[in-house]
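Researcher: Let's do a round of design. I'm pasting the structure tokens now; please hold your answer until I've finished.
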């Protein structure tokens, strides 16, 4: 399910017609379900860096992770930066609701250019699967590095492993459905990247790219999200959403048997559906790359 799991926020509205404001609920439900993963990753980050004064969530989407950053670093001011004003409005509502509105701000505009409008350099820039929505990732990293304070940290969440939800043989259809969906999703992702304005093909060696932006002390660590069967109702709703997006987004590229399997998985009357099966799980590995601006 490769591409279905990378939408956190965005810096650009035009890529392959993605309507980010329309995806607000999906973005929120995904980030909330993945909260244990983010909490582990941010706890690690908290041990790696000194308490930041200013944090910018680059491509924040509706601000779920911005809130977790505010919680992890209670002394910091946090800024949600995104290309979608409706998503930033939701981020502000969340900040007020959860009690960190007094140290929260938003920055609207195309990323990474809008980062130039920051009043002060950031001590921590977090980019959670937002960089790959920008055509020139190398230039975007350089722009991010420019807005870091000396000694500040840039943290990227990019890469990892595709998320899995089902047994290899789900009991009907051809075994290995998710592997075939992942292959089609990888093709979709390549087309999405190629269609971005100013798209530059780049070897995704994130440590090397961070170094090329003038940053030092690169580190990489992967974290597991393991929600074993039987999963919560929230997880079932999320997986249903994922497979609905598969059917609507790449369903025409699946063969007839796999399309039928996806339809059965989405039919709540079917005992083998996502809503009813006892063996549904969520297993994901996401990778965080960090680097520091020389003091």
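Researcher: That's everything. Go ahead.
Model: Designed sequence:
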């Amino acid at each position: 399910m490769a591409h279905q799991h990378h939408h956190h926020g965005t810096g650009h509205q035009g890529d392959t017609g993605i309507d980010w404001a329309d995806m607000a609920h999906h973005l929120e439900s995904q980030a909330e379900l993945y909260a244990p993963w983010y909490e582990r990753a941010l706890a690690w980050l908290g041990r790696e860096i000194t308490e930041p004064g200013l944090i910018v969530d680059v491509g924040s989407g509706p601000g779920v992770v911005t809130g977790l950053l505010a919680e992890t670093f209670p002394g910091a001011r946090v800024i949600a930066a995104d290309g979608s004003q409706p998503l930033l409005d939701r981020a502000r509502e969340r900040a007020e609701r959860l009690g960190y509105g007094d140290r929260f701000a938003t920055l609207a505009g195309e990323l990474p250019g809008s980062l130039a409008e920051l009043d002060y350099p950031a001590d921590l820039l977090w980019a959670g699967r937002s960089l790959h929505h920008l055509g020139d990732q190398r230039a975007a990293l350089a722009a991010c590095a420019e807005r870091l304070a000396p000694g500040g940290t840039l943290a990227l969440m990019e890469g990892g492993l595709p998320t899995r939800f089902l047994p290899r043989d789900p009991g009907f259809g051809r075994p290995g459905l998710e592997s075939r969906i992942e292959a089609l999703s990888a093709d979709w992702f390549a087309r999405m990247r190629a269609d971005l304005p100013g798209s530059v093909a780049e070897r995704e060696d994130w440590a090397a790219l961070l170094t090329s932006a003038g940053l030092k002390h690169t580190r990489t660590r992967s974290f597991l999200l393991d929600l074993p069967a039987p999963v919560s109702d929230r997880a079932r709703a999320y997986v249903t959403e994922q497979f609905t997006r598969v059917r609507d987004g790449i369903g025409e590229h699946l063969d007839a048997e796999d399309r039928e399997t996806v339809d059965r998985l989405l039919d709540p009357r079917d005992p083998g559906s996502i809503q009813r099966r006892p063996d549904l799980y969520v297993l994901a590995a996401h990778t965080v790359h960090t680097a520091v601006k020389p003091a």
